[in-house]
Automatic annotation (TrEMBL):
Pfam families: CBM_2, Glyco_hydro_10
Taxonomy, superkingdom: Bacteria
EC id: 3.2.1.8
SUPFAM superfamilies the UniProt entry points to: (Trans)glycosidases, Carbohydrate-binding domain
Molecular function (Gene Ontology), one example: polysaccharide binding
Taxonomic lineage: Bacteria, Bacillati, Actinomycetota, Actinomycetes, Micromonosporales
Keyword Hydrolase: yes
Record-given protein name: Beta-xylanase
Biased amino acid composition, Pro residues: 351-376
């Protein structure tokens, strides 16, 4: 993704990487910060992507592979956007049309175009009740759970390192006032299907940001918004890997832009996740439509962790709701008033980059860090929570270091007869049945004294019995 950074004016926009850079070059911090400020105030961008990049954000579009031969379409895409989302090409029916047979050709065309032109890619989507291939629609229970996890693992592994953010799970909550999960074959495999999908995605591509994505979650007072908020809060509290929330934001008269939209964005952000506007379109025309686009962009720029906006298509004629003329370019590719308002709002917005790229609030240390090596030994303990259903289980194991830091750990669990581990995240297992040992992976072996790390595994049959043992290594 380094070419993305080059296009965005040389400033990294990948939070994790940027945080690491700050940690290692803390002394240069003041210089970096002032350079950014100068660059921001020196020029107003003349395209959506360049203007968003000046604010530390991306501006993307949903793209269809079969339109990449349309020169008007590609001309606008390359000029205006620095992120793409395949509109349909990464959905389950497209990438695994027959069980176990994967098909990436159309998605690859979009990914390759994006990478060749310095654009980020949002992956959409790994697990969804809709656009399932026939074979998956007819599955249920443990077989479906395994098939879903395999799909997540295979697709995320194939694109490992090429995806900025994955919509890991899409549209899992019901509309209306209940705040309940949407009934679906995936939901009927057990309430933990969402977290299992996120864990599998993290294991397959640890560098991608993992998002939960949904529609009708824009109005802060709606039950569905609150339900997603509670899911994210729960995931953060329990250490389930989640980095971002996608608000689709399809607005029209039946589902209008809400006046509390900014509250929704900032409330999600306050949970410690990025917020991305993932499928923006606003039905209408003229000044009214333009003003709503202006408001949406201003709201995003007012929330530091609102890191990017994607519109769901390029020209009105490309839209899934073409008759509502909801996009920024007309059918001939001309800029609409909505485009001008969007660009103005991007240029007017708060220049503060998102906190994932902001300097830390504590000053850099004035004394060098101690050179003594970290203490070793001291042991560890492990505790396990089990989520079981008829025929399968998910185990989450928490490893806690004792009075000294440890540099590695090995946990042993005992599976009852007939049980088998089928998938492990944040650990590697030796063996899949009976007495199984699970070791740390490269990034979670070091655990500071008194702190914890979590890993998990999934299997068929009945979950492990007894308390796992932990040995520091
Ligand atoms: O824009 C997509 C359209 O071409 C497809 O026919 C449709 C099929 O489900 O999906 C559309 O994209 C949807 C997205 O994947 C998820 N959020 C709602 C979008 C609009 O329906």
């Amino acid at each position: 993704m380094d070419n993305v950074h080059a296009r965005a004016g040389g400033r990294p926009t990948t939070g994790r990487r940027y945080r690491a850079a700050f940690a290692s070059v803390a002394v240069g911090l003041a210089v970096v910060a002032s350079t950014v400020a100068v660059a921001t105030s020196a020029s107003a961008g003349t395209t959506l992507g360049a203007s968003a990049a000046e604010k530390g954000r991306y501006f993307g579009a949903a793209v269809a592979a079969n339109k990449l031969s349309d020169s008007t379409y590609v001309g606008i895409l390359n000029r205006e956007f620095n992120s793409v989302t395949p509109e349909n090409e990464m959905k389950i029916d497209a990438t695994e049309p027959q069980q176990g047979q994967f098909s990436f050709a159309n998605a690859d065309r979009i990914v390759n175009h994006a990478r060749a032109n310095g654009m980020k890619v949002r992956g959409h989507t790994l697990a969804w009740h809709s656009q399932q291939p026939g074979w998956m629609q007819n599955m249920s229970g443990t077989a479906l759970r395994q098939a879903m996890l395999n799909h997540v693992t295979q697709v995320a592994t194939y694109y490992r390192g090429k995806i900025d953010s994955w919509d890991v799970v899409n549209e899992a909550f019901a509309d209306g006032s209940t705040g309940a999960r949407r009934d679906s074959n995936l939901q009927r495999t057990g309430n933990d299907w969402i977290e299992a999908a996120f864990r599998a995605a993290r294991a397959a591509d640890p560098g991608a940001k993992l998002c939960y994505n949904d529609y009708n979650t824009d109005n802060w007072s709606h039950a569905k918004t609150q339900a997603v908020y509670n899911l994210v809060r729960d995931f953060k509290a329990r250490g389930v890997p989640i980095d971002c929330v996608g608000l689709q934001s399809h607005f029209n008269s039946g589902s209008p832009y809400p006046s509390n939209y900014r509250t929704t964005l900032s409330s999600f952000a306050a949970l410690g996740v990025d917020v991305q506007i993932t499928e923006l379109d606003i039905e209408g025309s003229g000044t009214t439509q333009a003003n709503t686009y202006r408001n949406v962009v201003a709201d995003c720029l007012a929330v530091p962790r609102c890191t990017g906006i994607t519109v769901w298509g390029i020209r009105d004629t490309d839209s899934w709701r073409a008759s509502g003329t909801p996009l920024l370019f007309d059918g001939n590719g001309n800029k609409k008033p909505a485009y001008t308002a969007t660009l103005e709002a991007l240029n007017a917005g708060n220049p503060t980059p998102p906190p994932t790229t902001a300097p830390p609030t504590t000053p850099p240390p004035t004394t060098p860090p101690p050179t003594t090596p970290p203490p070793t030994g001291g042991g560890c303990t492990a505790s396990m929570t089990l989520n079981q259903w008829n025929g399968g289980f998910v185990a989450t194991v928490r490893v806690t270091a004792g009075s000294s830091s440890i540099n590695g750990w090995v946990v042993t669990v005992t599976l009852p007869g007939g049980a088998n581990i089928t998938n492990t995240w944040n650990a590697t297992n030796s063996g899949t049945s009976g007495s199984v040992t699970l070791r740390n992976v490269s990034y979670n072996g070091r655990v500071s004294a008194g702190t914890s790390t979590e890993f998990g595994f999934q299997g068929t049959g009945t979950g492990p019995t007894g308390t796992p043992t932990c040995t520091a290594s």
